[in-house]
Amino acid sequence: MTFTLAIVGRPNVGKSTLFNRLAGKRLAIVDDTPGVTRDRRMAEGRIADLEFRLIDTAGLEEGDPGSLSDRMRKQTEAAIEEADVAILLYDARVGLTTMDEHFAKLLRRSKTPIILAANKCEGKFIQQGIYEAYALGMGDPIALSAEHGEGLGDLYQALVETLQEIGIDPHAEEEIDEEAERRAREANTGPEEGDLNYEFEDPEDEDEEVKPLRLAIVGRPNAGKSTLINELIGEDRMITGPEAGLTRDSIGVDWEWDGLPVRIYDTAGLRKQARISEKLEKLSVADTMRAIQFAEVVVLLLDAELGVEKQDLKIAERVVEEGRALLIVLNKWDAVENRLEVQRAFEDALTRSLPQIKGVKTVTLSALTGKGLQRLMPAVEEVYEIWNARVPTAAFNRWLHEKLEKHPAPSVNGRRIKMRYGAQIKTRPPTFAIFCNLPDDVPDSYVRYLENELRRDFDLPGVPLRFIMKGSANPYEGRRRKNK
Known about the structure:
single chain; GTP-binding; Rossmann fold; GTP binding
């Protein structure tokens, strides 16, 4: 990425629509309701051969110090300061408003160059809205239709000209560190004859980029998800406050912990299905569910003061159904008086409601004060490693035969279920295939028995396990008896 581009403007002018258009996919929630976006969202953007880092921002609004509007405006100001170029977007159908003029003055005082763009220009009667923009004194406005992808060629030209004016070559290739390249060539020449102090490495792995661990933070509204992320990364990246439901989009933040790249997803709070009536909240919930599907480890954040509710257990059950690694975090632990009683109540509820994931790891902390936060990421890494665990085929079959001798599979309609052999066929989560003569008749209770025994014997607590029963072919089927 050669530069960073921020999209700013008052609420409901189409910033998120333009963000999705430039990103090439629907990342931000788009709705007619003003002020949908609250936290700034980042992605890789592109227009033709021009690649850049893209920032979507909350609508610029005035508000009292400490209010939600004021906190959203500070997030937008941080994005403008971070960007090399910013697009000030306004609605050409509505024309310039007093708010547009106010924030144009604010942007002119910033050091970031501004490109003025009129959105929603797909109609025939918007010329007046374009002509009004000259009063802002920010040059010629670019006519766009973010929804239909019109006007991107003019935006491309304006970006190139603006970047050249501030000394950035938008088509410059990244500089190559010649010394690093020389060391890499020497490293790839291989060991000298007689030197055995080296380890074999797959050459395909050398070019493989280390992918970040995808970590989603989920929970009910106002559990402290955004506060936890801000405390982890050490900056006020997410909007926080006493209001419930502040987060609407699933926002991804790149971070590094102890040398491990991590991408953390802040998600919207999940309420009971019966209470979700507004279209916008339904979109937010769907975005959270996509974050769970995309994540590798999911942290379910609970408010320790409120205890465990049915909705918390439903969220945990959904995470398990998706096959993600689960970690339970009890937040606001510093405010809990009867800690032993609360923890026992939680463990009892989890054992009763989610018997299929025995041994789920729990962490207690306070996201607001940071107390206990040092235990979170080691627990995430531990759960992630178990989720990626692989059991050798020989060890698995020895274990399977021992369990079959100890507790044979039951008979069905007078026919005995014969389990011949098995193997782990995938990780993430650990998934095992067992070949038997009656795969469709194996009782669920017997599968649960195998899951519990495998979890205990191979130390696989707290992650979903999958068992697939497959039919094994009869080697004598189809053969005809030879005539004597």
